[in-house]
Write a structure and sequence with these properties.
Number of strands: 13
Number of domains: 1
Distance between the termini: 42 Å
CATH class: Alpha Beta
CATH architecture: Alpha-Beta Complex
Number of helices: 11
Radius of gyration: 19 Å
CATH topology: Spore Coat Polysaccharide Biosynthesis Protein SpsA, Chain A
Shape: globular
Oligomer: single chain
């Protein structure tokens, strides 16, 4: 997929408290779904969307993310000696997906602050943001669709999903005017609204395309919910100067940053695999 958006930022500096103790010594983005860590699915979506340069925001102790995408000559030689051609091809492919760089977020001050760490990397270019603990299944790579929306509007755009109002308080909520079949112009954004005051069942789903002027708004954003720099607050500020749009995507979001969805995602994607899907399905039927 070819588009104007070539850079992407993946925030992956969070502690992962919802997945403890599994995330005590490894990042939640490195938790394995079937046979690949979560962040590999995310990067593969970015590459399929035409992204050529990725900056992953990490914190101290998360160097394993860097190691996963680095060349390992010892492993390659071992696989070659053992004749494991398929595995060798996968490892070589992994280390040549695109240009991947890393930047540290030294204090846990929220998603907005993590994205602010990417200002130098982004420069004057539009850029995508993909949350590192969210896998998206869609007929076309979602980040690429947002990039196409940006090309048409020259404005920021966020991916949306519809959820039941009973759980919308867990998310950033989007309120807007419908201007296309699955396209909205934002009129209001609310980060984790109160349960009794939820204005919409449209919520952010972990994929964004921004213009670089978002950084000025992030810098002047005061700590909000959970005493963190909230991206939603900066987006609301950005809306005072330019339009912001929402794309209701066709597909499924897997938030693997919590235990239940982590297990569901492994089963869902496992059932779709040619190598294990049938046996997994047969086993699941024995449980009912």
């Amino acid at each position: 997929m070819q588009n104007m958006v070539k850079k992407a930022v993946i925030p992956a500096a969070g502690i992962g408290t919802r997945m403890l103790p599994g995330t005590k010594a490894q990042p939640k983005e490195m938790l394995v779904i079937v046979d690949k860590p979560v962040i590999q699915y995310v990067i593969e979506e970015a590459v399929q969307s035409g992204i050529t340069d990725i900056l992953i925001i990490i914190s101290e102790g998360k160097e394993v993310l860097r190691e996963h995408f680095s060349k390992d000559q010892v492993l390659e030689d071992l696989l070659k000696r053992k004749g494991k051609t398929a595995e060798l091809e996968e490892i070589i492919k992994l280390t040549s997906l695109c240009n991947i760089q890393f930047e540290y977020q030294h204090e846990q001050k929220g998603l907005g602050d993590a994205i602010l760490c990417a200002e130098k990397f982004v420069g004057n270019d539009p850029f995508a943001v993909l949350l590192g603990d969210t896998i998206i299944e869609s007929p076309q790579p979602l980040t690429g669709l947002l990039a196409l929306d940006y090309e048409k509007t020259k404005s920021p755009v966020v991916a949306l999903q519809q959820v039941d109002l009973s759980i919308a308080h867990r998310y950033g909520v989007f309120v807007g005017e419908k201007i296309g079949e699955r396209f909205y112009k934002a009129t209001q954004l609310v980060e984790k609204p109160l349960k009794d005051n939820i204005p919409s069942n449209l919520v952010f789903s972990g994929r964004y395309v921004f213009t670089p002027d978002i950084f000025g708004h992030l810098r002047k954003t005061a700590p909000g919910v959970n005493d963190e720099i909230q991206l939603t607050d900066a987006m609301r500020s950005l809306m005072t100067e330019r339009d912001l749009y929402g794309h209701l995507f066709d597909g499924v979001r897997h938030d693997v940053g919590n235990k239940l969805d982590f297990i569901k995602t492994n089963i869902t994607l496992g059932l779709k695999r040619e190598d294990i899907g049938k046996e997994l399905g047969d086993w699941i039927r024995t449980l009912s």
